[in-house]
Every structure is written in C-alpha cells, then in structure tokens.
Amino acid sequence: MPNFTKWKARICRQPKPHPKLQPHDVYSPTPLTSNTTRMIRLLPQREPTTTHIKCDLFTYNLSEKQSGERHVYEALSYVWGTGPRSHSITLNNCAFPVTENLHAALWHLRDRQLERVLWVDAVCINQDDNKEKERQIPLMRTIYAQAGRVIVWLGLPLDGHGDQALRSIRQAGGEGLTVMEDDYTSVTMLLRRDWFRRMWILQEVGVARSVVVMCGSVQIDGHAFCQGLAGMDHLLPVDLHPIIHPVVQLIRGAPYRPKYQLDSRGVFSMGELLDMYRFCRATLQHDKIYALLGLSLDGLDASALQPDYSLPWHEVFQKATAHIFGASCTVKTWPESHTAVITGKCLFLGQITSVDQDNNHGDGQVHVWVHCTTAARSLGYGEHGWDWAIPPFSESVREGDIVCQLQGAARPSIVRLCQDHFTVIKTSAPSVTPGRPDRQSNPSKDHLSHVALTFTIPPGSSNNSYCDEAEQSTELLTITPSYHEDPSTETKRLHDTAALLEDRFVRSLQYNGDMSPALQHLISQGSPKIPISEQLVQSVVECPTGEPLQIMQLLFQKRGDNLPITDNVVRAAAANSRLGYPILQLLFQERGESLPVSEQVVVAAAGNDEKAYQIMSLLFEQRGRGLVISEEAAVAAAGNYWSGHQILRLLFEQRGEDLSISKRVLKTAAGNTRCGYETMKVLFQQRKSLQISDEVVTEAAGNPRHGHDIMCLLFARDNNLVISENVVKAAAGNGGNGYEIMLLLLEKRGRHLPISDEVVKAAQGNTLYRHDIMQLLASAQSV
Fold first, then answer.
1. pLDDT in tens, 762-772
2. Is 42 a member of any domain?
3. What is the distance between the alpha carbons of residues 90 and 53, in angstroms, rounded to a whole number?
4. H or E segment to which residue 474 belongs
5. For 615, which DSSP code?
6. What are phi and psi for residue 409, nearest 5 degrees?
7. Nearest CA-CA partner of 152 in 228, 85, 244, 215
8. Within 13 A of 218's CA, how many CA atoms are on the CB side?
9. 7 pLDDT above the threshold of 50
10. What is the average pLDDT score of the chain?
11. Are 22 and 128 contained in the same domain?
12. 3-state secondary structure of 560
C-alpha cells in the first residue's frame, strides 16, 4: 500500500503553477456545440510514487454512439472542497490548477500502463465561463448516464479510517460478518464525509448505470456498498439516516436503470427533488436548483428552471418556487433571505395524526394516517381519512402536520403551523384519490382558505437544523422583515387558520373522542394572534379521553385571559363523565370568581354519570349558598345512574328544608334503574310528607332492576297505596322483575287488582315472564 504521508508531503513540496498560465488558456475560444463536451486522457505513469500528473484535454461528441449504448469513458463524482486550487496538473502541456482532493483522486486513478478517459467537471468545463456552464449543465445527465461507470471518490483514508471502513462495508455485505466497534466508528466517520451532503452527487449517481466507490486505494462495487450498509443500518446514528438513505437508494438502483436515451428525463418533479435534497450542500446557491435538473421530470422543458448564473440567487429561487406551487399563488423572495413567502388560497385536506418512521412495513416508505377535514369529507375524500405511504425526505413529517392543496397546484403539500403562518415540509405529496368520487366536486370559495406559507432552501453549507431554528418558533415578519401584508388580508388569513384549528378539534372528537398529540402541536405552534373560538374550547373540555386537561393548561399558558371560557364551556366541562372534575378545578383556578356557573352548569354536574358527586362538591365549595339548585338540578340528581342517592344526600346536606322535591324528582328516582332504591330511601328519609302519585307508582312498577324493592318501600310507607290499571300494566310488561312485582300486587290487592285487556296484552308481550304472569292473571281472575 502506498505511504500516504510521504505522498502528501511530496504534493506539498511540488512547484506552484506558473503565474502566467491561467485555466482558460487550455480551452478553445470556440464554444462547444450541441451534445458536445470535453474529456481528459489521464496518461499512465510507471513510477507509482511520482506525483506529477499529465492529462490531455479533447472534445467529445456524446451523440455519436447508438442511442442507449454505454461509452467507455468514466465520470468522476467527488467533492471540490472549499480550499484554493493549490495543486496543479499538466493539461495539454500547460500547468492547470486543481484542488488537493481532485489531485489525490487523479493520482489514485492513474494506471501504470494504460490511458484512462475521464470526465471531470472542474477540468472539462471552463469554470470561469458562466455561459458555458449554463450550456453544459443540461448535458450532465447525459454525461453520467452514458458513462461506462461513475467513480465515487470519497477522499484519502484520513487517520487510516476510510479504507478500513470500505473493507468493513464490503465484508458486511458479502460475508455477513459482524462489524466490530472500531470498524463501526470508521464507517460512521466515512459516512459523515462531505461527499454524502454534496448537491451535485445526487444527479451523478442518480442516473449512473454502474457505480464504484473509492477511498484511497480501496474500491468497492456500488451495489456491494449498498448491501453492506443495509446490513449495519440499525447501528448507524439516527442523524445519518436522512442523509445516507436517499444516496444509497440512488446507488442501489444503478444496475437496474434502462439504456439511456438522449431525450429521456427524470421521474421526479422539481418539488419532489427539493423535498428530498434541499438540505444538501452546494458551493454556489444556484446549484441547489441546477444540480437537480438531470433528475427532474420537468427541468428540461420549464423555462423557469433553465440555468442562468447571471441572475441573482433570490430571482432563481423565486422562479423555481413559483414553478412548483403554480401560477395561482404569489411568490416573493428577497436578496437577504433564504426563505420565500407563498400566498394564495388553499383547501385544507387533513392533519397527520400518526407517523411510522421505522419502516415496519418493509418498503422503505414513511407511513402516515391523515385525518380529513370537514371540507375534504364533504368533497368525497373519505369519511375519516386515509393511509399514506410517502418516500422519506430531508425534513421529517410529524404528528400535527397539515395536508393542504394550493389553488392551481398539481399536488398537495405538507405544511406545519409556525406561529402566524405555515412552513412547507414537503412541497409535493402524493395525489389524494377521493374515496367517494360521486361526491367530489370543485372546491367552492367556502372551502378555500387564505394562507401564507414559507419555503426555505437553506444556505449551501447548512443542514436541516436551519429551518428548525429559523422558522418553527418565529412569526412571519421576523423571518422575512421585508414582507408586507395588507391588514385585511392578514385578518382573513388568521381567521381561516382559526377555523382550521376548530375543525381539527371538533372532527377529532367526533371521530374517536381523543385529543391526540397532533392537536397539542397546533396549540403550541400557533400564534396568540390566531383567535381561539368558544367551539374549540368546548370540544376540548367535553373530550372524555386523551389529554384535554393538558391541552387546557397549554391554552391558558398561551392565551391567558383571552381564552373564551363561557357558560357553554363550563357546562360542557361539568358534563364530562371522566375528566370533568380536574378540568373544572383548572377553570376555577384560572378564572376564580369570574367563572360563570349558571343553573344549567349545576344541572349538567348533577347528571354527570361518573363524577357528579365530586363536581357538585367542588361547586358547593367554590360558590356555597350562591349556587342555584333548581328543580331541573334535583331531577338530574335523582336520575343519575351511578350516584343519584349520593348527590341527593349532598343536596339535602347543603340546602336542607330549602331543597324542593317535586313529583318529577320522585318519579325520576323511582325509574332509576341502577340506584333507584337507594335514591328513594334518601328521599323518604329526608321528606316524611312526600305525596306518592300514580305516576310514581307506575314508574316503580316498570323499573326492570329495582322495581320490586321500590314497590315494597312504597307499600311500607303507605299500605293503602292506590294500584291503578297503569301500575298493573307496567308490572305485567316488566321484563326484569315483573313476575315478583305481580306476586306482590296480588298479595296486597288479591281479587281487587284491576286486570284489563291492556294488562293481558302487556303480559303477552313480556318475552321473559309471559307464561308465568299469564298464569298469575288467570288465577287472580278465577278467584
């Protein structure tokens, strides 16, 4: 193996290029013609330690071979680096400056006996001629697609890591060997090299039909490289996954790509490509767009995407963004900003409520569930929502993200609420197929919402944390101070965002009664300028599952005194059968004496299935004698399925003789199928003079669970109890304990029991006790 330390020392000692020789001296002043580029012949050198590199530069016609046929040249994919062109090669007998990394690549690629024909961008394109670069960039797809193979140069094996990493990857893929800790460290360091973050490499390996990966003198077939990484994927740091996976996917596909046709194009739209790769690095910001043209489905035909290095970056950015989002929206960019603002109208389709990033489906896709909005449902997109499998991309989708379709856009987008606007996470999501095409119609103006989106293509050297830090907790004017918006437009936009929030909370409650983390994200990410409606708050406090208490705490934290806590909200909280008590505690804590506690709130509390006693105790504790206990409240307490007797006892304790017990209260208690007996006992203990009407006795006789016990209680209170035809009819039809009640009635009244045709008909309709009760009636009539 060559001694790299000595080799590098030789490089450093080599003479600098002659100052009078400039790179453009080797290029012909005649422009390259269509489908023509340049190649270099890398001349052989028998002495491997000689650092002097000689090349010949010549013109090459890419269209002379038959369509789809591979050429014999090799195309180099490498990192230029940020350093100066401090080294030189001899090119057509002239000293030509190159970077240290390119010099090292050529030195390792040089053969002892044979010439190698290479395409190297830094040499084959005149980098000082922007017009030539603009003409050559559209050819780069052809250059890399027709190459005999593409050589990926990852650099020298720094500190002995790179070459050993490639060997470990080859062993993991071919022999299935376990990667040792030291080897794993070297692999991780290799994968963190700049090549994997470079923008241009996406096109270079994305169209290649044969790839080889090199680090120093060690090389590995591209497919073997991918197989090896797949075997150790679970060991790699998570932060590497979004960087490595897209590149590996491109290399893995190389052997399966069809023969290249000169007029062929990519399979992804520019929007999809930017979704996947906009956080890759580029020396020149323009290349964030231009480096993707060779992979783009629309790049060759779209005038807005044609390379033009004479334009300032913000104009290139504006044109590309407008191309992606359509002509119906307005796109603004500024020289000092890497963020575009897109304004227009959109249809909010749904919210992502679950995300599977772990590839549990084995297809390499991210699987999400989108819960559709009311508007999407009315337009036939589904009753509840849809599953989506989407490719991984540079910025991960999260629970709470919103799916919307801009008016005029070909595809939906995934956006995230960021204070007073939305930021684009994915420009081009899969098209949504309506689940009910018969109900689909064009969205009306009532379905469309005013929206402002920000879309960021970060500076060439940044990573995906740029957007997290710069946008996702900042209001629009802070991100783009130069942006100006008419106040009425801002009001409409914020109002429509508020309507989206309300829809998401109400629809979620209707769908599964749950307050998922996705909804909490909307609250935590929203600006105080977005109004919160009474309906939204009510949907939270009445939710029986999930995290409504935490959401209310978050709402108070974000909105404070501006949060609408109305009588309807307090009533909904009081009726919440599982979580009403802690929610009401929070409401009293936050609003104190100003919290509205009306008669209807007390009625709702008294009727609460599970927490009535706790909530009523809380209301008495907070409001004491000022609490209004109406007849409706007493009726609700008497009818409370689980704790009617406990609530009535509490009411008597708090109000004593002032508590009014009407016929309705008594009748409701007699009909309570779970705790009616205990409730009637409480009433008779507290009120000795209660009048027992025919309606009360009839209700008791029909009680399928406690009817017999309540009837015994009534007879014990008044043995002369009037037993009407209605009472006997109710007992005869009672499917729970009608037989026992009929025995009791016959025992108490005997032949005086009123048995009519209606009573007989009720007995015949009793599916459980029909035979037994009919016998009792027959025996009573025969006496």
1. 999 999 999 99
2. yes
3. 6
4. none
5. H
6. -80, 145
7. 215
8. 20
9. no
10. 88
11. yes
12. helix
Any domain includes 445? no
137, 187: one domain: no
Amino acid at 170: R
Domain tally for the chain? 4
The DSSP secondary-structure symbol of 546 reads S
Q: Do 209 and 118 lie in a common domain?
A: no
Q: What single DSSP character describes residue 674?
A: T
Query: Model's pTM, two decimal places?
Result: 0.80
Q: How far apart are CA 382 and CA 368, in angstroms?
A: 15
Boundary-marking domain end, from 280, 311, 330? 330
**pLDDT: which is higher, 97 or 261:** 97
Q: Give the residue from 147, 164, 187 where a domain finishes.
A: 147
pLDDT value at 136 more than 60: yes
Neighbours of 237 (CB within 10 A): 10
| pLDDT mean over 386-402 | 82
Q: How far is the C-alpha of 206 from the C-alpha of 278, rounded, in Å?
A: 15
- Name the one residue in this structure whose structure tokens are 């109710």: 730
CB contact at 8 A, 677 and 709:
yes
Q: What percent of the chain has pLDDT over 70?
A: 89
- Split at pLDDT 50, 70, 90, the class of 443 is low
Same structural domain, 140 and 160? no
Radius of gyration of the chain (CA): 39
Instruction: Provide the 10 A C-beta neighbour count for residue 156.
Output: 21
- Average pLDDT, integer, range 200-208: 90
The confidence score (pLDDT) of residue 417 equals: 95
The larger pLDDT score, comparing residue 378 to residue 662, is at: 662
130 and 227 in a single domain? The answer is no
Tokens of 219: 């090389």
- Angstrom CA distances, 288 to 200, 293, 665, stand at 8, 10, 75
Tokens representing 14 are: 């080599």
What would the pLDDT profile of 540-598 be if each residue is shown by its tens digit?
999 888 788 999 999 999 999 999 999 999 999 999 999 999 999 999 999 999 999 99
Does any domain span residue 196? yes
Distance between CA atoms of residues 40 and 42, nearest Å: 6
Buried b / exposed e over 703-723, threshold 16 CB at 10 Å, is: bebbbbbbbbbbbeeeeebeb
Per residue in 525-543, pLDDT (tens digit) is: 899 999 999 999 999 999 8
Rounded CA-CA distance 586/599 in Å is: 20
Q: Are both 161 and 213 inside the same structural domain?
A: yes
φ and ψ of 388, to 5 deg = -135, 135
pLDDT of 17 strictly over 70: no
Domain that holds residue 771: 719-782
d(CA 146, CA 601): 77
Instruction: Give the Cα separation of 353 and 384 in Å (integer).
Output: 12
Find the distance separating the first CA and the last CA of the chain, reported in whole Å: 120
**What number is the average pLDDT over the span 679-683?**
98
Residues 251 and 275 in one domain: no
Q: What is the helix (H) or strand (E) element at residue 472, kind and residue range?
A: none
Which runs of E-coded beta strand occur in 548-611?
Answer: none
DSSP class of residue 361 equals T
Secondary structure class of 239 (helix, strand, coil): helix
8 A C-beta contact, residue 426 and residue 435? no
Alpha carbon separation from 360 to 271, 356, 357, 386 (Å, rounded): 27, 7, 8, 18
* 225 lies in some domain: yes
Q: What is the pLDDT of residue 781?
A: 77
Average of per-residue pLDDT across 360-373: 78
CB proximity list for 458: less than 8 A, separation 6 or greater: 278, 279, 338, 464, 466, 467
Pairing mode, strands 385-390 and 366-372: antiparallel
Average pLDDT over residues 158-176: 80
CA dist list (Å): 56 to 33, 39, 338: 20, 8, 41
Same domain flag for 13 and 128: yes
Q: Are 738 and 728 in contact (CB under 8 A)?
A: no
